[in-house]
């Protein structure tokens, strides 16, 4: 299977992909959307869902930001930065929605900067150190495929705000997945060294895959995407050997706390600062 065939197949149904960051678009995804929690929707459960999705995005965006000035080429640096900004934009909207419906009135800064690592509910895959470029590509492929499958379902959620956020995110995540798939094929089917590094990256990511499939029935869909890409790249399918514990329960690796310290340091040192 060629690189172009993988790209075209994964892009099917997502031709109108958005390749720019949330903050640079001209459309407000929440314009005119009713913010009242619909009857039959549990506000507490909705808030928890929004926070977990936002935590995934925020932590992933922080890891992607580490590639600034370090990516193999300037074009890839810009691409990774924009993917990170897309995720940051999703996190901001989701945190804001959580604060609206959980009764606390917290804003996005309160969620992002003033919670400790044990309060975060992101999946552990997001918080792992960036490693080399191959690792970041494998992680991005898995994460974007999984998140895209979720958001496609959430676009039909009964809460119109979450549905609107998800619908906007689907366009972005489709591009994230395509970008990662292209690089996965290029590296897997490239030199002996790039193939070796991709194999190593798969082994590093594999223990964290099981955690992704506990909340939603998207496993078959995600596995199908991973199989398609790995076959084109001449790589084996990663074997799921799940580690015990879950980031959704606040059980994180030792890598999250220092990552958050870097993210939150200025806000905590100057909590009353404004632009």
TrEMBL record:
InterPro entries documented for this protein: Aromatic_CoA_ox/epox, Ferritin-like, Ferritin-like_SF, PaaA_PaaC, PaaC
Gene3D superfamilies tied to this protein: 1.20.1260.10
PANTHER family linked: 1,2-PHENYLACETYL-COA EPOXIDASE, SUBUNIT C (PTHR30458:SF0), PHENYLACETIC ACID DEGRADATION PROTEIN PAA (PTHR30458)
Protein name: Phenylacetate-CoA oxygenase subunit PaaC
Organism per entry: Streptomyces venetus
Gene that produces this protein: paaC
């Amino acid at each position: 299977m060629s690189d172009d065939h993988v790209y075209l197949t994964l892009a099917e149904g997502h031709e109108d992909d958005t390749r720019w960051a949330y903050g640079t678009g001209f459309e407000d995804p929440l314009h005119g959307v009713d913010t009242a929690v619909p009857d039959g929707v549990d506000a507490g459960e909705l808030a928890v869902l929004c926070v977990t999705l936002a935590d995934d995005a925020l932590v992933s965006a922080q890891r992607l930001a580490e590639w600034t000035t370090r990516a193999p080429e300037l074009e890839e640096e810009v691409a990774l930065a924009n993917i990170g900004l897309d995720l940051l934009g999703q996190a901001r909207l989701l945190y804001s929605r959580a604060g609206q419906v959980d009764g606390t009135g917290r804003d996005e800064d309160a969620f992002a900067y003033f919670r400790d690592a044990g309060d975060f509910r992101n999946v552990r895959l997001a918080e792992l150190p960036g490693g080399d470029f191959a690792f970041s590509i494998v992680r991005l492929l898995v994460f974007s495929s999984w998140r895209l499958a979720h958001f496609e379902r959430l676009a039909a959620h009964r809460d119109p705000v979450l549905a609107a956020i998800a619908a906007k995110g689907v366009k972005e995540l489709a591009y994230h997945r395509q970008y990662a798939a292209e690089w996965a094929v290029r590296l897997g089917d490239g030199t002996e060294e790039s193939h070796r590094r991709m194999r190593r990256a798969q082994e590093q990511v594999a223990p964290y895959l099981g955690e992704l499939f506990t909340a939603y029935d998207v496993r078959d869909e995600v596995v199908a995407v991973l199989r398609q890409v790995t076959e084109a790249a001449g790589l084996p399918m990663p074997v799921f050997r799940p580690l015990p514990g879950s980031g959704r329960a606040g059980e994180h690796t030792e890598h999250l706390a220092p990552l958050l310290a870097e993210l939150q340091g200025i806000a905590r040192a100057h909590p009353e600062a404004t632009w």
